[in-house]
Amino acid sequence: MNQTPWTLKSFRDVLKKCIAERDLFTGKSLHALYVKSLLSPSTYLSNHFVLLYSKCGLLVAARAAFDSTYEPNVFSYNTIIAAYAKESKIHIARKLFDEIPQPDVVSYNTLISGYADAGESVQAMILFKRMRELGFELDGYTLSGLIAACRDKVCLVRQLHGIAISGGFDSYASVNNAFLTYYSKNGFLNEAISVFNGMDEEVRDEVSWNSMIVAYGQHKEGKKALALYREMVGKGLEIDMFTLASVLSAVTSLADLVSGSQFHGKLIKTGFHRNSHVGSGLIDLYSKCGGRKGMSESEKVFEEIPSPDLILWNTMISGYSLNEELSEEAVKSFRQMQRFGHRPDDGSFVCVISACSNLSLSQGKQIHGLVIKSHIPSNEISVNNALVVMYYKCGNLRDARKVFDCMPEHNIVSVNSMIAGYAQHGRGAEALLLCQQMLDSGSAPNNITFVSILSACAHCGKVEEGQKYFNMMKEEFKIEPELEHYSCMIDLLGRAGKLEEAEIIIETMPFKPGHVPWAALLGACRKHKNIELAKKAANQLIKILPSNAAPYVMLANMYTESKNWEEVAAVRKLMRERGIRKKPGCSWIVVKKKKHVFVAEDWSHPKIGEVNEYLEEMMKKIKREGYVMEEKWAMVKEDEAMEGEKEIRLGHHSEKLAVAFGLMSTSEGEDIVVVKNLRICGDCHNAIKFMSAVTGREITVRDNLRFHCFRDGECSCGDYW
Ligand code: ZN
Ligand code: ZN
């Protein structure tokens, strides 16, 4: 290699270059040369060979180099510990750490970060405590390692924050930025703001500004993000693609398509729109704010970018998956990405799995199979969380729970998803049990947990529990109830017949009630036959959503039930005059990967003749078992019958057709999942109960509010819906 005799210095120089360039080939020959040379053993060189091998992922070679080190020093240990930690072999790293005669700050930091990566926050904290007891000076690295280790345990981070401030670390930008980002990511915007505001002007770096813009974006505070961005421009601070992407995400949170496309125009002038990071922000903007039409804009942005990377593909898949009607496109795009040679990562899987929630269980299961075969670690929380949601949304609560139980670790999202699944399936007891287990384990619930819990209580009539949790949320966890929580309470009280209490909440809550609480109240009024309050709720709903037929239909139904034909006619006349059309009820079922849609009184399905025959036979069968058609639903002609005013027989309701089709075209013992765009009607609910008994099948109907899982003549909702 070299004619001049090798000195330690020349070895050192070449090795440094090898490490910087990760040049394993030269590095290995250099190592062989060094071993053969008669130079005195150098700990420095050995350490750097360890470093080289570790950087190139050769753990065994790194260990061999370490073991042959003459007089290993603390740097030798730190290097090999980092190598093991990097390869998730934290226990070996720990053993080596314990062998160090005098570990230094770096040794501690390395192991703490290792524990953080391995998710062993307790070990990280114990080590940190020992470090402080021994009087070590902590540094920025210690803190960022620890913040990472804390994951969702925000109280620990607050403690750390206190320690950082008392240790004078609040003058380090990196430390502040780490806290800022952590608080924002975990939902504590105010704390993020106070970190940012607490930083002196000269302490703040560009990362701080960007992180704050991102934080505003995450919390849908688009205006503040834009203001901060302008301030940044005014100060002449450097704007990079990350800042631009953050601004885009802020505009997206404002759903401000106008400012967004203006900004797009500016980006085109600078050429930044071809940058994958910025392009990804643009796609996100159009797909989140532009609906279906926006997605075609997104496709244009996508095509402009030369050689799209994985992130960009993921943004496209995510864009499609946001729109229920585009779920098929999401799956197509996912497949296309793979054909282009990209290996899906956890982000790709999360999006495509969520798209499958709107498609079918079989497609979801296929993707689950891919997850298992892929390189994604089986403990990847976000993917597992998406699977939990997919399974319960596709009607399979059992597999949702199976995935949940197999997860080595849960975060708040996992628990919230599982509770939401129980809530939507009407399994209130299980939802409450899981919540209790969460509280017992010392994890803190967040605002979303309480939405699920309250809705679980509402779906099964647990009024006292609901009130208990509502109070607990405010008093114990200091979470201010949002509109959604109030809506759940109104639903809960209303369904249980406490209409006055529900009305009081609607009138006294600190939010302007939107359509959700009024619709909940209206539904409750129908259930408990309170026509006066129903009129009030319906009028409010009509004001908020003038073209929505639901309140009219609901009132007409109530008048029909009380045989007040004059009022029925009046409501229908009003609908005609105002040009309000009811959206037709439709149900669909996926059989052998094909979606079959049924609309009441619509005969376009190719097998409709057979379906009707099958259904008629089935109706005879269940009548023999004691099923009686519920007159009131027949008279009301159900929601979809409002349009056209023709007499529709109950037998032709879309959900019955879809269930019949499912039963006749699948084999014995197979479960059936039907989705309906409106609420299931009472007569169909009753009939399907009987059908489940006579066929011995499990039939799930997912309507626009919840799941009904029929088995052995019973429904999971316990008829409380
Ligand atoms: Zn029906
Ligand atoms: Zn039910």
Overview of this protein structure:
The chain is elongated, with a radius of gyration of 31 Å. Helix 5 runs antiparallel to helix 6, helix 8 runs antiparallel to helix 9 (140-150) and helix 25 (412-424) runs parallel beside helix 27 (447-459). Helices cover 66% and strands 4% of the residues. Among the domains are: 397-541, Alpha Horseshoe (Serine Threonine Protein Phosphatase 5, Tetratricopeptide repeat), CATH 1.25.40.10; 588-715, no CATH class. The N and C termini lie far apart (82 Å). A hairpin with a 2-residue loop joins strand 5 (707-711) and strand 6 (714-715). The protein has 721 residues and is mainly α. The longest helix is centred in the C-terminal third of the chain and has 17 residues, at 608-624. Strands 2-1-3-4-5-6 form a six-stranded mixed β-sheet, with helices on one face. One zinc ion binds at residues 638, 650, 653, 655, 681, 683-684.
- Assign the CATH class of the domain at 397-541: Mainly Alpha
SS-derived structural category: mainly alpha
For the sheet with most strands, the description reads: 6 strands, mixed
Q: Ranges with pLDDT <50 over ≥5 residues?
A: 634-648
Rounded to the nearest angstrom, the radius of gyration is 31 Å
**Number of helical runs?**
38
The percent range for helix content is 55-70%
Strands of the widest sheet, in order across it, are 2-1-3-4-5-6
- Mean pLDDT over all positions: 87
Q: Under CATH, the topology of the domain at 397-541 is which?
A: Serine Threonine Protein Phosphatase 5, Tetratricopeptide repeat
**Ions, cofactors and other bound molecules:** zinc ion
- Count the beta strands: 6
Q: Specify the CATH architecture of the domain at 397-541.
A: Alpha Horseshoe
Terminal residue distance: 82 Å
Shape: elongated
How much strand?
under 5%
CATH superfamily of the domain at 397-541: Tetratricopeptide repeat domain
